[in-house]
Design a protein that fits this description.
binds nicotinamide-adenine-dinucleotide, 14 helices, binds glycine, globular, alpha/beta
């Protein structure tokens, strides 16, 4: 088992990673409250995760004295709405005896569930404690750590939410065994992202362990997730509210979000879009002399080897550019992007031009192109 501490002063917390941890959820939750016996714990999970792991989570909480309940939401990104958020609150506030400020909310599931459950916890009764129990690789390595919560709005993704850190994060790598391969690849895109912006040694670790990682071997997954959580924890500790370096975590995401929006959120995985976005951003970095052609190829080849897309037909670069102009992270109407500076470092570039974006898409063979 590995433990990573997210250092945020009085709001610091532990991320525990290993095999066989879900049955110890109750003990982990109880340890957050020295001297308290049980209380109320409400687990929020989507329908798929509730079926697979709901019973185990509830039993573990009940075994240490929690009065534990389960609330389900429909699986999938389409649940990340204010309407679903309202329904979750309706259920939570209908419990008898009623919930109170000592009620613990446990988010059990992927990034959708954690974003929703975290938002519910941050706002119900002006804030309840939240424990994150991620079950997708994307949530293990990204969504569970850092305190971003959100729902989508028709004007865009993740536009409504708050920052509120969890009290703790428990990652049972065994839950990855039931995760479809495509979802594993989605999470691996975020791992490659962390490696490119912060740690070339992580890139080498992934390159040397592809079969074990794709087979979700517990030892390899524990090491991989702990490594990624350490990187994310360091970034969040330095810049919790994304005033500076946390924005580096958006590497691949400016173009990736535009691709998701153009293709449709239900037609392409987030990690798949980020993979295409990283290939394109590497190409821009090569053109600006920030990254060598060999390093860009290394990233490209690893993504391909992990089963992630590195090219996609039918994307219209000019339409992507129009979407990128609306990105909420832009400043002063200029497209802002994170580009790698060699492998293991990144910088924010504020003045990406339409011409260089189109050039990188069309001429330099990124293969994001019109049919
Ligand atoms: P998800 O939560 O929709 O999970 C993907 C699918 O996998 C779902 O159908 C789910 O039911 C299923 N599933 C989950 N765990 C499973 C398991 N162990 N076995 C079998 N099936 C399982 O999606 P995701 O990819 O985990 O997360 C994407 C979301 O996360 C997006 O909404 C994104 O905005 C958000 N996100 C948030 C942050 C953050 O910092 N808050 C960071 C990254 C992504
Ligand atoms: N997923 C990006 C962040 O947490 O800032």
């Amino acid at each position: 088992m590995e433990n990573v501490r997210v250092e945020l002063g009085p709001r610091s917390y532990d991320v525990r990673i290993g095999s066989g941890l879900l049955p110890r959820l109750g003990r982990f939750a109880l340890n957050l409250y020295a001297g308290r016996k049980g209380g109320r714990a409400v687990v929020i999970a989507d329908s798929t995760v509730a079926r697979l792991y709901g019973k185990s989570a509830l039993a573990s909480l009940a075994a240490v004295g929690f009065d534990s309940r389960l609330i389900r939401l429909r699986a999938g990104e389409s649940s990340k709405t204010l309407a679903t958020y309202g329904r979750l609150l309706d259920r939570l506030l209908s419990f008898r005896p009623p919930i109170d400020r000592s009620t613990l909310i446990v988010g059990l599931g992927g990034g959708v569930t954690l974003d929703m459950a975290g938002f519910v916890a941050a706002t119900a009764l002006r804030g309840l404690d939240f424990l994150a129990c991620p079950t997708t690789l994307l949530a293990d390595t990204d969504a569970a750590v850092g305190g971003k919560t959100a729902v989508n709005h028709r004007a865009g993704k993740n536009l409504i939410g708050v920052f509120q850190q969890p009290r703790g994060v428990l990652i049972d790598v065994d839950t990855l065994k039931t995760l479809p391969r495509r979802q594993i690849a989605n999470g691996l895109a975020e791992c490659v992202k962390h490696a490119v912006i912060r740690d070339e040694r992580l890139l080498a670790f992934i390159e040397s362990n592809v079969p074990a990682i794709l087979a979700c071997k517990p030892a390899a997954m524990t090491r991989l997730i702990a490594w990624n959580v350490k990187i994310k924890a360091a970034v969040v500790s330095a810049d919790e509210r994304e005033a500076g370096e946390r924005a580096h975590l958006n590497f691949g995401h400016t173009i990736g979000h535009a691709i998701e929006s153009a293709v449709g959120y239900d037609k392409i995985g987030h990690g798949e879009a980020v993979s295409l976005g990283m290939v394109a951003a590497c190409e821009l970095a090569v053109n600006r002399g920030l990254l060598s052609r060999e390093d860009a190829s290394r990233v490209h080849d690893l993504l391909e080897c992990l089963g992630l897309p590195v090219k996609r037909r039918g994307l219209n670069p000019a339409a992507l550019w129009r979407i990128m102009l609306r990105d909420k992270k832009n400043r002063g109407g200029k497209v802002r992007m994170v580009l790698p500076v060699g492998l293991g470092k990144a910088k924010i570039v504020d003045e990406i031009t339409k011409e260089e974006f189109l050039l990188c898409c069309v001429v330099h063979g990124i293969k994001i192109r019109e049919d």
